[in-house]
Each structure stands twice: as C-alpha cells, then as structure tokens.
Amino acid sequence: MGLPKACASAMFLVLSALEALASDTFIAAVYEHAVILPDPTDKPVSPDDALALMNKNMDVLEGAIKEAAQQGAHIIVTPEDGIYGWQFTRESIYPYLEDIPAPVVNWIPCTDPSRFGPAPVQERLSCMARNNSIYVVANIGDKKPCNSSDPGCPSDGRYQYNTDVVFDPEGKLVARYHKYNLFRGETQFNYPKEPEVVTFETPFGKFGIFTCFDILFHEPAVVLVSKMQVDTVLFPTAWMNVLPFLTAVEFHSAWAMGMGVNLLSANTHNISFAMTGSGLFTPEGPAAYHYDTGTEEGCLLLAELSAYPCLSPTYPPAINWSLYATSIKKFPGENDTFSGSVRRDIFTFSELRRKTGNYTVCQGDLCCHLVYQMSNKRKNEVYVLGAFDGLHGSLIKYHWQICTLLKCKSTDLDTCGQPVETAQTKFEMFSLSGTFGTNYVFPEVLYSGVQLAPGEFEVLRDGRLKSKHGTSKPLITATLFGRLYEKDLPHPLEPPNNMTP
C-alpha cells in the first residue's frame, strides 16, 4: 500500500475570513483509508492471524499519522472499521476484539501495555500518538465479559461493542465511546445499555465523539452539541453513499452547518461498497473535503479550524426554519403534483415546467416553497420540487421532513427520486423554504459530480436556503433536511414510554 500522501483530487477550500479572524485555531486531519479486508469467514481466525491483518492496516494508518504530524496537525481521525473491516459474524470478529477500559483508569498503553491483559492494538495506537505528539482517534472492537446475573448477557457470555478510542499526545487513553445506533448489518455487535455522551477537553476546545449512523439521531449526536456544548465532533464512519440526500460529504457538511460545530469526518474508502467522502466541516462550510469514486487510494486531509467556532465573528446566526414559509400564501401549482419514491420513501413532487417560477408542494404538516430561475430550460432534463413528512428506516424508524429541489434521472417522471450524479442545468437563483416543525434542519446543495458548493449559498434568519449569485456548476439538488426527533419510534433497546424528547 505504501505511505499515504495528500491526495491531489481533494478539494482544499480556504476559509480566509475564518482564519484571519479566529483568535484560537488548531490544525485537524482526517484520513480516508482503503481498508485491507480479511477473507470472509464464519469461523474465527487465530489471534495471530487477526493481529497480522490489523497490523497491515495500522501500518498504513501510522504513515498517515506521521505525515499529518509532520504537517503540524494536532489531531487526526481515522475511519470506522479502519483496522479490521466489517465482514464479520459475531463469532468471527471475536479474535479482533480487545478489552478497552474506561479512560478514568489513567492508562498509557504504550508504556504499560499489559496492565489490562493483551492489548497490542491499543498499545500500537497509543505509541503512534505518543511518538508523533498528536491526538489519535481510531475505531476498534471492545469485549466485556458478563454472566447469568445480568439478564441482558448474551448467550456466549460477553458483550461486543463497536468502539471509538482517543489517545492524547502522551499516548494516554482519554476517550472511549460505544456506538449506540448500530446499522442494520452490524449483528456482530451489541447495543450499549444506555447511550453514552463522551467528551474531553483539549488545549483547543471541547471535543465530543460518536460513530457513523449515530449522526442521524438525537442521542448521542444532538445531546453532545445542545447539552454538552462541544466545539468539535470527531466522527469515524464507514458511510455508504446514498443519493440524492445522504452522500457523506453532502450530509456531513450540512450537519456541521445545521448544528453549528466543527465535524471531523473520516470515511472508509471502498468503491464496491460506495464508501468514500471525508472532510473537515465547519459551521460556515467545508474547510477541506474529498470524494473519489475513481480510485482505490486513501486520502489525507488537513485544515486549520477555529477551536471555538461559536465565538467566531463569522459564526452563522440563529435561524427560525419556518418563519418565512409560514408567513406567505401558497404559490400556485400545489394541486399539480404526483407521487414518487426516493428509495422507499414516498414523496410528493411537482414538475418545474418553466424556466422560472414559484411553486408550493405539501405533504402532511410540511409545505415546501420554491422560487427559482434556471439559466436555461433544457428539454432533456427535468427538475421537481419535492416534500416528504414521515418515518424513514427499517429496523430503526426515524422521522424526516424534507424539502428538495431535485433533478430527475430522466425526462420520465417515474425516475424522479432515483440516484443522479451528473446534471447540465445551472440556476440563476433559487430560494427554498418549508414549514418545518423542528429547529434541526440541515441545508444541502450538491453540484454535478457529487461536489459541494462552498460559499455559493446562504441560509437566511427566516429559514430560506438561497443561492448567492447563481450556481457555478449544474445542480443535482438543493435540500432542507429536517429531523423531528420527538416523532422517532423507540430505539430497539427502549420501551415505548422512554422515547427521547
């Protein structure tokens, strides 16, 4: 694999105003890692074989960590599943797991590796941090024995957790987080009994951490920001891109803007699983990001970020997401609608038939308003205004409210909502708003080629998502992605009367 290098295809976007005005900054890094995967098997391999595979991946990660440190980075995030992959059963992942203690034990594995039993992975990660004087964030597996006195104890006598760890520049374990919202394929892991809210202090701000699918839920993601008031969120992920609303760079950038924090997002890189897209995201937009479906190479990103973004003069103002949309009358066209599916979600759509226009589309309690002007109305491309207000998901069901200006896959309206990566139509302007029943709304603008639009749009205090000076590239979608957490169905471990407000 060789040592990683900063990828030429990465988009480095200098937020000059932020860097000039911020009094306290730090250099952050994320590494998108092309994970070396084990051979799929239902039977456990030997501990030596498991460690050999993990060392191959850690060889690559160590190269990225060294390079990041040499370039002045204070912290680096590596991906979820970045050390051993994800193709496991409950039994076959066991040789890859270690007992990870709580940080309160004040432990430096690099200098005291056997204190809690064999821990070669934690030892090596700790030494990477210590030898390079950098915070290292990694994702590994934790195992905890249990017995019949615990009614929740699995039949094999142990809990297994998808776990993030953070080692400080001395190599000390300073954070451990067990993933709470497991994705549907993660049957090798257990849910922790309670959601964990993990934070730690650094010389450059207060940090929180969670993993991948967690970002879509109230606990722990919203709790970390709204209650614990972290400045920066660390986000190891193995994110499979799903157009039109849930590509990694698109949603993660929108989440950082909507929540008003830095988000350091490190994705795995595997094209066959549609995994790519990492970034250093801020409340003002992306400082650096990478999306690459053409190669199987890893990518190191670095950027200087504000340590305390909420104190920055450029910090976005508070937004009333429904103020504008509830103050106007419906635009004509709300009766000229049709239904279409975005994956399994049934949207209400209205076709934008003219070069310029005003439209309203409603579904449930949500009405979406759009004012737009295309640069040129092309006969071979169709755009729609869409609304969705309902539950999404299979194992875990959670409530979305979405307003979207969306390109259809073809001129056949039945294709509206299907994945589209390219477009030809630019817009002179657009203004999108909705009668959202939540303060948690994430603004997305995605250009042709799955590229972000930093600096080219704004969100006004009254909730309008507006282009600033037209779109510089053809538009795939402009979307306001709302989450009504209080309408989510219970977490699989929660009884119905324990729903998170």
TrEMBL record:
Residues 1-22 form the signal peptide. The active site is at 80 (proton acceptor), 179 (proton donor), 212 (nucleophile). Keywords: Glycoprotein, Hydrolase, Signal. It holds the Pfam family Vanin_C. SUPFAM superfamilies: Carbon-nitrogen hydrolase. Residues 31-307 form the CN hydrolase domain. GO terms for biological process: pantothenate metabolic process. PROSITE patterns: CN_HYDROLASE. InterPro entries: Biotinidase-like_euk, Biotinidase/VNN, C-N_Hydrolase, C-N_Hydrolase_sf, Vanin_C. One of its GO terms (molecular function) is pantetheine hydrolase activity. It comes from the Eukaryota. Belongs to the carbon-nitrogen hydrolase superfamily. BTD/VNN family. PANTHER family: BIOTINIDASE-RELATED, CN HYDROLASE DOMAIN-CONTAINING PROTEIN-RELATED. This is Vascular non-inflammatory molecule 2-like isoform X2. It comes from Pipra filicauda. The gene is LOC114001474.
